[in-house]
């Protein structure tokens, strides 16, 4: 087993550190944020990520603000935020690269623009993009569908792949590995935008999107996942990575029309959903960009809220404090009090099992907009709601 350094204790870095420790490696995890390191030393984790806190508790990981030098492998898990034109800010990555000791394998896990590794002089640089879904990060790390390792130094790449145990491996060069990451997230975005437009068409022609996607899912060439229409796709990855790939394509004079359309469609989806929400007193069920996380970054719920006029409140099982000037209440019942409309924006499973008659009774006008297709339509209508859906005629 090896001594491994992880730089960055965000959701990717912490998951990487915890899972590598779980696989038997000796792990030191560094972050520049003193307060965060202090909390991690006390076993306090501020991320909602199933299984992560347990692994951190179970394994002895050293948390530090000091750059880890005495390691065989150094995983770079620092943020690469998008600038205004979609270009990634690589300051944090370059800071790490500047400090990596000569005989340490540098593992680039942060999502970096295509061609970044090629510009790094360090000999043993391995591009090893992450494919961790928030809410499933631990299982995605420990039981990956594939591990991608790209390097000019194939021996270093093989050694990085071996750290994960017996897993399917794609062994390639740095630039291809970097592009795989963007290709995956961008393809998922295209798929979702396709379905969201299909849902709009269903509403017009009187078809049912669930039936349409059921018919699509059974075709293995299309695949069963990522066919659920919603308020638009968000989060810290899909919006950023689609913009970055478009930016790379533009630099190379490549017209990536399908991806451009997917991004435009997503903006349209947010506006289209906002137009479905009528009333002055609005209650939002869900604020996070998807269920199973407390992450609000690039959440479509917040983008939609910004387009609404009126008094907005929200309930979200993972959020307890005011967000963007939106008052957050403690229960769905409290949310319903005196509201003109409730809007399901995140697919939290508990939203399928609310006490509909009780909620309807508390509202000024019982209207429910379900952007995620999670509520039981019959029960909701029986309780007296007017139900507005995405992908089904009202
Ligand atoms: C995404 C990818 O799925 C991961 O493979 C990748 O590693 C990660 O980005 C990353 O780059 O780090 P994540 O951002 O956690 O993971 O979120 P997803 O589960 O992909 O969901 C993205 C958005 O699509 C969410 O807003 C979600 O609600 C929406 N979505 C997803 C739908 O509207 N419908 C679906 O059927 C699926």
From TrEMBL:
Keywords: NAD, Oxidoreductase. Signal peptide: none annotated. It holds the Pfam family UDPG_MGDP_dh_C. PANTHER family: UDP-GLUCOSE 6-DEHYDROGENASE TUAD. It comes from Lentzea kristufekii. SUPFAM superfamilies: 6-phosphogluconate dehydrogenase C-terminal domain-like, NAD(P)-binding Rossmann-fold domains, UDP-glucose/GDP-mannose dehydrogenase C-terminal domain. Belongs to the UDP-glucose/GDP-mannose dehydrogenase family. This is UDP-glucose 6-dehydrogenase. It is an enzyme of class 1 (oxidoreductase). One of its GO terms (molecular function) is oxidoreductase activity. Its EC number is 1.1.1.22. Pathway: Nucleotide-sugar biosynthesis; UDP-alpha-D-glucuronate biosynthesis; UDP-alpha-D-glucuronate from UDP-alpha-D-glucose: step 1/1. Residues 283-377 form the UDP-glucose/GDP-mannose dehydrogenase C-terminal domain. InterPro entries: 6-PGluconate_DH-like_C_sf (IPR008927), NAD(P)-bd_dom_sf (IPR036291), UDP-Glc/GDP-Man (IPR017476), UDP-Glc/GDP-Man_DH_C (IPR014027), UDP-Glc/GDP-Man_DH_C_sf (IPR036220), UDP-Glc/GDP-Man_DH_dimer (IPR014026), UDP-Glc/GDP-Man_DH_N (IPR001732), UDPglc_DH_bac (IPR028357). It catalyses: UDP-alpha-D-glucose + 2 NAD(+) + H2O = UDP-alpha-D-glucuronate + 2 NADH + 3 H(+). It comes from the Bacteria.
